[in-house]
């Protein structure tokens, strides 16, 4: 009889998960007729039928359900073994997913420090988008923004930066408007917003300006756009002081108050649980001690 037809088993796994030939064909980038051919081949090899057609849907029998469960476990074991071999390859590229604000304002300016310490570790920096799930099959380490410590199976997580935000402006804006002493003063000038007006409404409370006689709102979809506007002297913004640390230390930006919002949010680094002294472990520990 020979070995089991692995390609046909892979096709059956996709068919079972989707419940249709069309869904399996779309996943595997083949035609439905190719799926049908592989299913007939598998049934001939097994010597039994695995399903009944009910229109476009398939009804699987007990043998098919049992086989599908065994295949899921087997394919998962194969995938884990392959991923482990890849991780042990010393030439493997280390992929780090970072939310754009942290990447541009905080991580990238510090990467030369890491390169000096570990010049032989290849890095790939990609964006992690807030609110979007990260595929940790393709990502070794992620830096994310969240209210609570992330809980991801078989992953480590550690807080690396505070998310607390305070009002800031450029030095040139401060020079033009020297009397910015309290919330009432701040509210009279151009308020720059990140995503929506909720941040300033929370920080100003009753001092939030009504539209009559007040400057129009300017809302930026991305923090990096907001930061660019603040640096250009266009107004005052609420920014996480931890990620604009360099701007504050060099005087490009000036903090106007110690009162903060978003104190419950933080930036976290997340990586695989198996820290073995390899590139993932080295970069993760470097992040922790910055």
Automatic annotation (TrEMBL):
UniProt-listed GO biological process terms: DNA-templated transcription
Keyword Phosphoprotein: no
Biological source species: Acidocella aminolytica 101 = DSM 11237
InterPro entries assigned to the protein according to its UniProt record, in alphabetical order: LysR-type_TF_proteobact-type, LysR_HTH_N, LysR_subst-bd, WH-like_DNA-bd_sf, WH_DNA-bd_sf
Protein name: Transcriptional regulator LysR
Family: Belongs to the LysR transcriptional regulatory family.
Domain HTH lysR-type, residue spans: 1-61
Keywords: DNA-binding, Transcription, Transcription regulation
Pfam families from the UniProt entry: HTH_1, LysR_substrate
GO molecular-function terms, A-Z: DNA-binding transcription factor activity; sequence-specific DNA binding
């Amino acid at each position: 009889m020979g070995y089991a037809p692995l390609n046909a088993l892979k096709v059956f796994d996709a068919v079972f998960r989707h419940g249709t030939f069309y869904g399996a064909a779309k996943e595997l980038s083949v035609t439905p007729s190719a799926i049908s051919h592989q299913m007939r081949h598998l049934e001939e090899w097994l010597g039994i039928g695995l399903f009944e057609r009910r229109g476009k849907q398939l009804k699987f029998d007990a043998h098919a359900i049992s086989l599908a469960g065994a295949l899921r476990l087997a394919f998962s074991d194969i995938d884990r073994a392959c991923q482990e071999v890849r991780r042990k390859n010393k030439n493997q590229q280390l992929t780090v997913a970072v939310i754009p604000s942290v990447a541009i304002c905080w991580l990238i300016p510090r990467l030369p420090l890491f390169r000096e310490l570990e010049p032989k570790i290849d890095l790939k920096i990609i964006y992690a988008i807030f609110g979007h799930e990260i595929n940790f099959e393709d990502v070794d380490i992620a830096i994310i923004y969240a209210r609570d410590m992330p809980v991801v199976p078989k992953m480590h997580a550690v807080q690396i930066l505070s998310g607390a935000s305070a009002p800031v402006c450029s030095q040139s804006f401060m020079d033009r408007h020297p009397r910015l002493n309290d919330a009432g003063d701040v509210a009279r000038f151009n308020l720059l917003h990140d995503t929506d007006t909720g941040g300033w409404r929370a920080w100003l409370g009753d001092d939030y300006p009504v539209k009559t006689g007040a400057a129009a709102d300017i809302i930026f979809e991305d923090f990096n756009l907001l930061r660019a506007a603040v640096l250009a002297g266009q107004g005052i913004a609420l920014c996480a002081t931890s990620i604009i640390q360099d701007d504050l230390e060099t005087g490009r930006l000036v903090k106007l108050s110690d009162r903060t919002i978003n104190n419950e949010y933080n930036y976290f680094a997340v990586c695989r649980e198996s820290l073995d002294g390899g590139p993932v472990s080295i970069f993760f520990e470097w992040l922790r001690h910055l």
